[in-house]
């Protein structure tokens, strides 16, 4: 049996998928784009919020409630690779990748659920 410290060390060395993903409404194809240093954990968070009716994206929440979870898919758009040889600011890399997808896909208004950035 492993000790608590051994389990902590193992957890610290785990490599999670980092990057950008979307929640896509398969009926309307509207999308919500988000990013995380742990994509699976963030997807779970969104699902929980949507299931509980507490997601901050009101239009997404309304469609989820009306259509049901089965009409939505989570899709990874891009990942940031772990770099064992260099020091990398992963948060910065993830945000840059997210900004690129937001610029390219424009998930606002009739195309998506994200809030338009303030000018």
Which descriptors would you attach to this protein?
single chain; 119 residues; alpha+beta; three-stranded antiparallel beta sheet; 4 helices; 3 strands; globular
Average per-residue pLDDT, rounded, comes to 92
- Distance N terminus to C terminus? 55 Å
Q: Please summarize the sheet with the most strands.
A: 3 strands, antiparallel
- Uncertain residue segments: none
Shape: globular
Lateral arrangement of strands in the main beta sheet: 2-1-3
SSE string: HEEHHEH
What's the helix count? 4
Strand composition percent: 15-25%
Tally the beta strands: 3
The radius of gyration computed from the alpha-carbon positions, rounded to a whole number of angstroms, is 17 Å
* DSSP helix fraction: 40-55%
The SS-based structural class is: alpha+beta
Please describe the topology of this protein.
Blueprint: H1 4-13, E1 18-25, E2 31-36, H2 39-52, H3 58-67, E3 72-80, H4 90-105
Antiparallel strand pairs: 1-2, 1-3
Could you characterize what this model shows?
The chain has 119 residues and is an alpha+beta fold. Helix content is 42%, strand content 19%. It contains four helices and three strands. The chain has a three-stranded antiparallel β-sheet. A hairpin with a 5-residue loop joins β1 and β2. The protein is globular, with a radius of gyration of 17 Å.
């Amino acid at each position: 049996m492993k000790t608590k410290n051994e389990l902590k060390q193992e957890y610290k060395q785990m490599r999670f998928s980092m990057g950008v993903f979307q929640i896509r409404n398969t009926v309307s194809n509207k999308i919500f784009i988000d990013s995380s240093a742990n994509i699976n954990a963030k997807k779970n968070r969104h699902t929980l919020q949507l299931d509980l009716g507490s997601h901050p994206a009101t239009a997404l929440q309304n469609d989820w409630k009306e259509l049901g979870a089965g009409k939505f898919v989570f899709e990874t758009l891009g990942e940031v690779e772990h770099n064992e040889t260099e020091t990398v600011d992963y948060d910065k890399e993830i945000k840059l990748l997210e900004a690129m997808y937001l610029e390219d896909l424009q998930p606002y208004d009739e195309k998506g659920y994200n809030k338009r950035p303030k000018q």
